[in-house]
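Q: Convert this sequence to structure tokens.
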Amino acid sequence: MKQKIWRKKLTALSLFAVLVLSEISGGVTAFAEELLPSGTGEAVSVTEEALPEETADGAGTLLPETGEVQEAEEEADSENGTVPSEEGLSSEEETSGSVSPDELPAGEETPESVSPDELPAGEEIPGSVSSDELPAEETDPVSVSPDEAGIIWTDISDRVIQAGGFLKEWEKSTVSDSSVMGTPDYEGAYKAASTALHNWNGKDEVIVVDVSAYNIPNDLDLLADIAARAINKNPDCFYVSTAIGFGSGPNTLSMKVNTRYNKTHVSTFNAKLNGIVAGVDENWTDLQKILYAHDYLVKHIDYDNTLEKHDAYNALIENCCVCQGYSLALSCLLNRIFPDAECDLITSRNLNHAWNLVTLDGKKYYIDATWDDPTGSVRRYCRYNNFLVSKTKFINEDHTSTDWIDIDGNNVYDTVTTGNEYDSFFWSDMKSSIPMVGKLGLFYKGLDPTRFCTYNFDTKAESEIFTENLSWHVWGGGGSWIGCFSSLGSIGSYFVYSTPEKIHLIDTAGTKKETYELTGSEKGKGYIYGLLAEDGLVKYDLYTAPNGSLKAEGTISSWAGYEETPDLEKVELNVDTLPMIRS
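A:
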């Protein structure tokens, strides 16, 4: 009798399990015959999806007292990456609107989810399953559990510029924390983190900062913002990764070092930075210093079409990066050359872009070195459409978003007043960088003839020094390209400029001192569409079109000779396509 009662109870519990499983998978229509007590005569079928997979250790067995199916590893819902909750909600009810991390592009977060670094310490992600609810040997994909040293690690790449991230608006925490006594000193905590970054010994894998003296609330997101600000404001600390840890002590901040870099990389970077700074004339005006930094980057950096290079090391050592690298490198240079420029970083998530905001003579101006170095053109091409411009001109140059976030977490779109003195300046028509000898800068304007002039940065006076009729003919065809494509430079106290087949050395009054003319072999390869004069050398590039591929390059050494490099692979571009602006 007791056995019959037990069987009836088991049958009822089994049928109840069917209902539970049908809510979870939507695929159960009945229960398996072999799971029913013998002699009931109720043979029913079960869809494959409803049953847990058998494992080697017997996972997927029926518990006699509950009639529920238990799995050693929750595989029933492995396809959508969800785990049923204890409340018995279906997988669809439990994780509505979510996407498996495996289905997302790299760097993206799950829609309608919150990442661990966006939560105050101790809070869980809404709608997630706690570690206590997970089956044995399964880990929460967004777990923020401490490591063996008691440190909770999180990744802040989404807000670190040198990792390809974007600045975020920052509101100082209002979290109530009984452990905090006194007013939080956010600036002090940031400076402590910055000092620790610069004091890296080149060996430690983790840089530890004690911020307990600054009364910072124990807020995970707030500490992450302090760490991100320290990294973003110190672009010369390119060796810091985006793995940020909290713990192992009260308000202790830990930052992992990027394993791609070591002390040798730091030494190489600093030596290069010192070399660039050494090119600054101590008598230059502040405007000249900013111009020098802008032109150096545009002349030397190639845009990274792989979209993988974001930091200042990529920009100044590898000479290849995306917009974050340009803007970080400009900050590096101006921090050394002209600290009063107060060079700020601005990013827009909507534009997927980064640029700078500088101060000159008490006024603010925008600089976008990336967009002044257009792709699809010769590598020494330099323009000034986005150099020291007002907000109005900047918007007209396609900076059309309104989320202009600065390094301190402020949206400056409507709060910063800019000057407009340089919106239409002497460099407006230039396709070349502007070389400087003392207080004089060389530039050109107009066509037929082209007028070569100097600008005195001290007196702000322009002087025409000579004119020349110049035309860059379409290679192998009729007609000429519209515009002047002369490339300019300087060596010592002399200026250098190019024509299609010649390079001239002139004094500041325009008198020609030396002339180099392409050899017959070189003339068969292309015209001069760019030069770089530095370290006593003049390097020149040969192209067949202003938006073509490099055909050959040569070097003039002290005007006594040259060495010609072997032909480069000739990859023709459509000469009918004008140079394009990179996005």
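Residues 1-143, 173-178, 560-583 have pLDDT under 50 and may be disordered.
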